Structures are given as structure tokens and as C-alpha cells.
Amino acid sequence: MAAAAAVRSSMGLTLTLSRVIPGCGTCHLYRLNSCVGGLAGASRTGQLHRFGTLTRHLHSTTGLNHSEEGSSNAEDPEDVVNVVYIDRSGQRIPVKAKVGDNVLYLAHRHGIELEGACEASLACSTCHVYVSSDHFNKLPEPDEREDDMLDMAPMLQENSRLGCQIILTPELEGIELTLPTVTRNFYVDGHVPKPH
Amino acid sequence: MFIVSASLCAVCCPKVCIVGAGPAGFYTAQHLIKSRQDVEVDIYERLPVPFGLVRFGVAPDHPEVKNVINTFTQTAQHSRCSFYGNVNVGTDVSVKELQQAYHAVVLSYGAEGNRRMGVPGEDLAGVHAAKDFVGWYNGLPDNRKVFGLSTILFFILGQGNVALDVARILLSPMDMLKKTDITQPALDLLAESRIRRVLIVGRRGPMQIACTIKEVREMVNLPDTRPEMVAADFKGIAEAVKEVPRPRKRLTELLLKTALDVPTEKEQEKRSKASRVWGFRFFRSPVEVLPAPDLSRAAAIRLAVNRLEGSGEGASAVPTGEVEDVPCGLVISSIGYKSLPIDPLLPFDSRKAIVPNTMGRVQKTAGVYCSGWLKTGPTGVIGTTMNNSFDTARALLEDMDSGALDVSSAKPGSQGVTPLLEKRGVKPVEFSDWEKIDNEEIKRGVAMGKPREKLLSVDEMLHVART
């Protein structure tokens, strides 16, 4: 019974962290080798896609704002992390978030236009953000795979990270996340053809 | 005579049609629909199934990249978006007819052709385009021809990510591949293949290699394989790498490590037990494919040896005059996809193989736009195409706002097209029909222990779609 309850609450946590089951690397359970789903040992190939297929039927398909089902309503002030997104037009959007929130899916919940093509599985760079300098060094070092994907992002800077890999902690209070502006001239001036 | 649209809007809604249901088409549609509450978008697709290269290009062992299909599915299911599969723009309906039915037409049909090497012997049996090989293992209905994989040595000309995908699929252990959505016929053939050595050949040097670090890492880590490079190809690279931007630096450092470093004990053990070999060869250009004595098939490849002039991304390969003849039975040319013109009335730049445009607005053709590879040439990953498509959508929206694109009078949209298709015996596949195909493929996949078992012919797809 306890085990079943633990699995249910852990699934709740997992679904809260992201709209679909995330790449295993972002989940606490996987890191602690406590993943009951047995994914911890399984090959990523095929398995992840199967879960992608499964959850396609779970999440809502209304509208295009990719909104999540909703995280818990607990308003414990200890849990609150204030975040500011700066969108592509330079507009500042303050967001009251919680410890454990994923920066990509938090953006989706607040209608901020941060794409996540591969759904947090470190297979694209569409959630590329710039992190405020005060907070950049407080983030854990990127996984080699994140660095590999960042290499593909246009206008890479020293303070670039992938939004899907940033999980909010109390130390990140006040963090500012700037969405890169990909200029119209990107393809015209000095364009270096990207590999595919 | 057009029937005025019976849709709910009292004032006309701007109606846009998109040609091509791959990433470019879907990202353009997504941006349009999100930005204006009155825009309606119809996406036309030649095949009965959507998603373009996400389905037919992305390698079977890269399922995470295919997650973007969920985003595209949300777009397709939006009330202001409709999918019309099994409609070939250019033969079933002309672009001119689309221009009459819609306020704007966006061409996003990508690159169906291959860049040719332009060397004698290119058309001999045993020489294939990478695009056709990828289409084959990914179940593209146009690429059902079977490949003979009975040779031991395989040459791949070109060093982009497509070349690395081909190498990796050829050399992957069966127990990895059989859990992917690779087609069963390809899996069966690969299981019997005798391929033991794959060389990936480029005109220039290690610092000009076109692939990216993730794909190189996958080759280095591929079970039961070992790398084989030519140390002399890396002369001077360790010094030159210090000054370059981060992406090139990290990639070159990985190549240097793989080619020159003394391996760890664990890596050495892996290499000594490996049954398959892969390697990069640099400074080589194909000049001829030499036939077997009976002239029926390729038997060897003649490579010109180059030297580099200049440095960095812009360095060029200059022939030294030296050539090498290397016996081999199978050559894959992976030097680029190529867009084709769809309609003689539209401008097309045959040198660059793109539709000439300024920021997505097709030149000299009001109301017609382009996005994706057709706009900028066939390079770029999902993220590149996304930005490219958003840019085109922005240009279109700007034109609507400024009046450069006239949306003041009603247009019939699909109601101006479907009667034409019906008259011509063309029955479109709707998105809900694709979902039947999707469910059937997933069901068949479960039986095989795979995420899906793709339907391989248009006929079969249509049959499932119609039930």
C-alpha cells in the first residue's frame, strides 16, 4: 500500500515537473535510482518514445498555449521562488513560481513563448535562455549532453542554458531568464549553414 | 465560380494555405494561429501522413527528436487548422488555384531531390544517395527499393549528420535497432549484412567537418565498434583549435581525443573486442566511380587528394593532383538534399535550389511565401527550421497588418479547393484519418516490441485511413 501510494505521489510529482514524462535525467527519482517505472535501467531508445506516445493521450489538447494540467495549490511562502522572464520584445514578465518548478514548463503555464520541441529530453536547443549573471553560477553544471545541444543554439553566450534543465531552488530567488531574440538578419549576414 | 465560405465569421477571416506538413509547415501554422485569432490555416501534404522529415528523416534511434510531433499534433487539432493529406500540389491542384482560394500561400515542401556528385559512374549499381537510404530505413513510400548490404566495406561521401546517421544505423547492434521504429524489412536486411567497416569521407579537414558533436559522440560510444583515423590528418589541429568558437572547439577536441589520445583501459578493451570499424577520412573528393569488368556495378572509387587553402569554416579544398583508387562495392553519397520546383509559374533558383525570397516573401509573387529548407537551403535541425518558419509567419502577419497583403475580401479557402479535387478524383486524408493510421502502426509495433511498425505504401495507408 505504502509503495503504491509512493508511486502515485511520485507520478504526481513527475507530471507536475513537466507536462509529459520528462527525459529521465530531470527526475529526482531517476537520479536517486528510485524510479519504480523501471526506466532507470532500460535503454532510452524506444522506451522514451513509448512514454511519449502514452502521455500524448493524457495531456489536454485544447488551445495552443501548451498549458499544463496544474501544479499543486500549496502556497507555502518557503516554497515560493520569484522569477522574471524577459520575452523577445524585451518585456519583463514577473512570475511567482515554486521550488521544483521546471523553467520551460513554468514558461508554458504563463503563456511565455519558449518552445520545447523535444520535451525536455536534451535533443534540441529550442528552450535556450540567458540566465542573469547573479544566478548563473548557482546552477548545477550542465550535463555534457546539455552542452552538446547548447552548441547548436544561435547566439550562444557565456550565460546560456537550456530552460528545460533548470529546476528552481530557493537560491535562485529573483532569477531572470531572457529569451534570445533571433534577428531577421540571421540568415542574411554572415550566415554559416547549420549542419543537420 | 466560388462558393462563399459558410464559416462563422461575419467579416472575412484571413485564410492561409501551407504546402507541406513537415516541421516548416507546422511551425509556420503554429505561429500564424497563435498570433491572430482570426487566421485559418489549411495544410496540404502530398503523402497521406504528416510530419515530413520528422517521420522520414530523423533516425529511428533518435526518438526524442520526434517528440516535436506532439506539438505539431496540437496545432493540427486546433479548430482553426485543417490537414489535407494525399494532395499533391502541382499535379492535383495548382499553386495558382491555391492563390485564388486563399489570401496567402506558404510553400514549405522542403527538399525531395538529391545533390548529384557530378562524377562518371555515379549511376552504377552500388552507388546510392544517402537520402534514399534514410528514406528506406524510415519507410518512405518512395524508397522501397532494397539495398544490397553484402559488402564488407562501405564508403560514405560527405560528413554531415545524415552521413553519421547512415553509418550508425549500418553499424548498430541489432538488439538496439530492433526496439526502434526502423522498418522491419530494413531490420531484416541489416541483420544479414556483412558490413564490417564504414569510412566517412570529406573533402576538407577535421576542422571543417559538417556533423555535430552529439552524433560524433554516438559513434565513439557505439557498442562493438572501434574508431580508425589517420593521425596525419590531424597535424596542426591541436594548435589551431585554441582560437575557435566553442561549438567547433568542443567538436574538434572530441575528434582529436578519439584519433590521437591513448585510450583508457576500458576503452582499449572495447576496441580490442570490437567486430566493426568506423573512421573519418579527410582531404578526399570523389572523381570517379570505377565499374567492375562487366560494367554492371561499382567496383572501386577514385578519390582525389586535396590540400586545404585558408583556414576555418571558409577553407577550401584544392586538388593536389594525386589520386587514390580504393576498391569498394557500396558507395553512399551524402552531400546534400535538394529542393525541386513545384510549378513552372513560380520563380525558382536552380543554382541554389531554393525559391528566391526576401525574408520568406517569394520574389515577384505577391501573396506567396516560403519557409523551411525551401527558403534557405537544406541544412539545419528542428530549431533552425522553427526560427526560419516563425520569421516567415512574422513577415506574413506584417503584410496583413500593413495592407501589403489584402485580406479585406472574402476567400473560399478549402471550399474553393475540395470541389476541384473531387472532380479530379482526389480524396484528401484528414487528420482524424491519419490518427487511424497512427493507431494501426502503434498496434502493429506492440506486436514487434517497437514503438510503431510503419505502413510502407501509400495504398496501405489509404486503406487504413478509409476504414
UniProtKB/TrEMBL annotation, chain A:
Q: Which GO terms describe its biological process?
A: P450-containing electron transport chain
Which terms in the Gene Ontology molecular function aspect does this entry carry?
A: 2 iron, 2 sulfur cluster binding; electron transfer activity; metal ion binding
SUPFAM superfamilies xrefs:
2Fe-2S ferredoxin-like (SSF54292)
Gene name, please?
FDX2
The protein here is known as Ferredoxin-2, mitochondrial
Supply the alphabetized keyword list: 2Fe-2S, Electron transport, Iron, Iron-sulfur, Metal-binding, Mitochondrion, Transport
Cofactor entry? [2Fe-2S] cluster
**Pfam families attached here?**
Fer2
InterPro entries registered for this protein in UniProt: 2Fe-2S_ferredoxin-like_sf, 2Fe-2S_ferredoxin-type, Adrenodoxin-like, Adrenodoxin_Fe-S_BS, Beta-grasp_dom_sf
Similarity comment: Belongs to the adrenodoxin/putidaredoxin family.
What this protein is reported to do is described as:
Electron donor, of the core iron-sulfur cluster (ISC) assembly complex, that acts to reduce the persulfide into sulfide during [2Fe-2S] clusters assembly on the scaffolding protein ISCU. The core iron-sulfur cluster (ISC) assembly complex is involved in the de novo synthesis of a [2Fe-2S] cluster, the first step of the mitochondrial iron-sulfur protein biogenesis. This process is initiated by the cysteine desulfurase complex (NFS1:LYRM4:NDUFAB1) that produces persulfide which is delivered on the scaffold protein ISCU in a FXN-dependent manner.
Question: According to its record, what are the GO cellular component terms?
Answer: mitochondrial matrix
Tell where it localizes. Mitochondrion matrix
Give yes or no: UniProt keyword Iron. yes
| Top-level division of the source organism's lineage | Eukaryota
PANTHER family, A to Z:
FERREDOXIN-2, MITOCHONDRIAL, FERREDOXIN/ADRENODOXIN
Annotated 2Fe-2S ferredoxin-type domain ranges read: 82-183
Do the record's keywords include Mitochondrion? yes
TrEMBL record, chain B:
**Every FAD/NAD(P)-binding domain range:** 15-170
**GO MF annotation terms:** oxidoreductase activity
Q: Which InterPro entries match?
A: FAD/NAD-bd_sf, FAD/NAD-binding_dom, Ferredox_Rdtase, Ferredox_Rdtase_adrenod
Reaction(s) catalysed by this chain's protein:
2 reduced [adrenodoxin] + NADP(+) + H(+) = 2 oxidized [adrenodoxin] + NADPH
Q: Which residues hold NADP(+)?
A: Q159, G160, N161, V162, R203, R204, E215, G380
Q: Which GO BP terms apply?
A: cholesterol metabolic process
Statement: the UniProt record of this protein carries the keyword rRNA processing: no
Q: Which residues bind FAD?
A: A24, E45, L53, V89, W373, G380, V381, I382
Q: Which GO terms describe its cellular component?
A: mitochondrion
EC number(s) per entry: 1.18.1.6
User: Which pathway?
Assistant: Steroid metabolism; cholesterol metabolism
Question: Which metal ions or organic cofactors does this protein require, according to UniProt?
Answer: FAD
Q: Name one Pfam family in it.
A: Pyr_redox_2
Q: Mind listing the UniProt keywords for this protein, alphabetically? A: Electron transport, FAD, Flavoprotein, Mitochondrion, NADP, Oxidoreductase, Transit peptide, Transport
Q: Where in the cell is it found?
A: Mitochondrion
Tell me its family: Belongs to the ferredoxin--NADP reductase type 1 family.
Kindly provide the name given to this protein in its UniProt entry: NADPH:adrenodoxin oxidoreductase, mitochondrial
